[in-house]
Amino acid sequence: MTTSVLPNITELKPGFGARIDGVDLAGADDATLQAVVAAFHQHGAILLRDQPMKPQDLLRFISAFGEPEDHTLQENTLPGFPKIYVLSNRIVDGKPIGAHNDGIGWHTDYSYRAEPVMSTMLYAVEVPPEGSDTLLADGCAAWNALPPERQAQLDGLELHHSWRHFMNTREFNRQEEPSEALLAENPDVLHPLVRRHPSDGRKALWASTGTVKEVVGMPNPEGLALVDELVEFMTQEAFVYRHKWRAGDVLMWDNRCTLHTGTLYDDQKYVREMHRLWVKGDRPY
Fold first, then answer.
1. Among residues 10, 174, 197, 212, which is most buried (max CB within 10 A)?
2. Is the pTM here over 0.90, yes or no?
3. 212-223: per-residue pLDDT in tens?
4. What is the pLDDT of residues 27-81, one digit of tens each?
5. How far is it, in rounded angstroms, from Cα 60 to Cα 224?
6. Does residue 122 carry a pLDDT above 60?
7. From CA 250, how far away is CA 50, in angstroms rounded?
8. 243 with 178: CB under 8 angstroms?
9. How far is the C-alpha of 87 from the C-alpha of 224, rounded, in Å?
């Protein structure tokens, strides 16, 4: 299925991402959904605006890409829909309905798992009029911008990712002593610094922050300094798309070739509620 059946596609930024107009996701037939999937694999990210989506609509849409992934922390999922994770500062009956300030800092989701999630989708239920932007960094463009000699130095390096390290050191929602059950479910893993996309073989820098403890075979602080250097390079303005949210937005990105981060907003003045869904991925190579 090609993307030609889609009514209107424009780039989110030159060379990256696709805004798809003229599609009603909740009512789309299977052929249209498969065209949206094809656009996603080709462009690295997709945006569809003004989408009135119920939870079951979100699940049908995400399932067109593959099997929905579970979430490590189940307490923040939407009641009755364990595949839908709630990001919000909203308090109901004295309790938060979701995770607040989750996803701050450049990263790729589930990088601490042997098979990180393929894609992340956010659906905007309620958004502030300012702040709370989501930024996507194009790892393929960053890789292609490196000189050949630098590419040769980096290709083949491995990163040591650790969920325990991530939970112990993250700025928001830190857990000094995660449960033994969750630690057992999330053992440390090694992943390549340069990842190849399975659809067409294109390469991407894949230097996530937060979960990385070391570059294998390189002592710290030298190893972590290299990771920081590459993340800074990959997240410069030339490679970044900044998304300013509107209610009804569906934004989905390919974790195999991007980094992303949320941004802060005035959480005393505004309410934000997003629904997050993941698609299972495979082992990076």
1. 212
2. yes
3. 999 999 999 999
4. 999 999 999 999 999 999 999 999 999 999 999 999 999 999 998 778 899 999 9
5. 40
6. yes
7. 8
8. no
9. 29
CB atoms within 10 A of CB 86: 23
Sign of the Cα pseudo-torsion (194, 277, 10, 241, in order): negative
φ and ψ at residue 21, rounded to 5 degrees: -110, 160
How far apart are the C-alpha atoms of 10 and 132, rounded to whole Å?
23
DSSP-derived secondary structure letter, 155: T
Alpha helices per DSSP H over the chain: 30-43, 55-63, 139-145, 148-154, 163-169, 180-185, 222-234
Distance of CA 266 to the CA centre of its chain: 23
User: In the 3-class helix/strand/coil scheme, how is 117-152 assigned residue by residue?
Assistant: CCEEEEEEEECCCCCCCEEEEEHHHHHHHCCHHHHH
Q: What are phi and psi of 25, to 5 degrees?
A: -60, -40
Distance CA 116, CA 114 (A): 6
pLDDT, tens digit, 9 for 90 and up, residues 225-243 = 999 999 999 999 999 999 9
The answer to whether the beta carbons of residues 47 and 250 sit under 8 Å apart is: yes
B/e letters for 32-59, b = 16+ CB within 10 Å, e = fewer, are bbbbbbbbbbebbbbbbeebebebebbe
The H-or-E segment that residue 87 falls in is strand 81-88
Which amino acid type is present at position 220? N
Tokens of 255: 């974790």
Residue 260: pLDDT over 80? yes
Sign, CA torsion 209/112/276/32:
positive
